[in-house]
Amino acid sequence: MTTKKFVIVSAACLSALFVLTIFLAITFGPKQEKLKIKIEAEPLKYKIIEKTSESCWVVVETLNLPSESKLKATVFEIWQNEEKENIFLYLPEMDTDLIAYVSAKFEDGDLEEFKINPSSLEGTKFEGS
Predict the structure, then answer these.
(1) Please, how many CA atoms are within 13 Å of residue 65, restricted to the half-sphere of its CB?
(2) By CB neighbour count within 10 A (0-12 exposed, 13-18 middle, 19+ buried), where does 102 fall?
């Protein structure tokens, strides 16, 4: 084999080895934990009214209709403290036997579902807010 061919083959092998190393590092290297939720507000104060092995029912303290970011921060704080998959938030004066204002579902540490139910405010001071 001539020197020129040897250099070309060597360069090709090194390139292939480099690509393989990058692939293995990405595939099998340390995983970065993905951000579970971005907290953009302070959580509301709350009182837990009922818990089961998977769910938590909570009444938050607020005088005004809270922002979505405050509700998400509150749900995340409750999840961190209670480690429940399902969290149901009620505003003051809401009937806790009816549908919650917020329902949230966590799966493997990720907030998989976050729903605000405006119809649950009927008959409360927050209706129409």
Answers:
(1) 14
(2) buried
* Residue of 99, 97, 94 lying closest to 127 (CA atoms): 94
pTM of the model: 0.69
pLDDT tens string 84-111: 999 999 999 999 999 999 999 999 889 9
**What is the predicted pLDDT for the residue at 15?**
55
DSSP 11-80: HHHHHHHHHHHHHHHHHHSPPPPPPS----SPPPPEEEEEE-SSEEEEEE--SSPPPHHHHHHHHHHHHH
Tokens, residue 40: 């953009």
Categorize the per-residue pLDDT at 11 as very low, low, confident or very high, splitting at 50, 70 and 90: low
Handedness of CA 127, 86, 36, 22 (dihedral sign): negative
Q: Domain segments of the chain: what residues? A: 1-32, 46-121
Which amino acid is located at 28 in the chain?
Answer: F
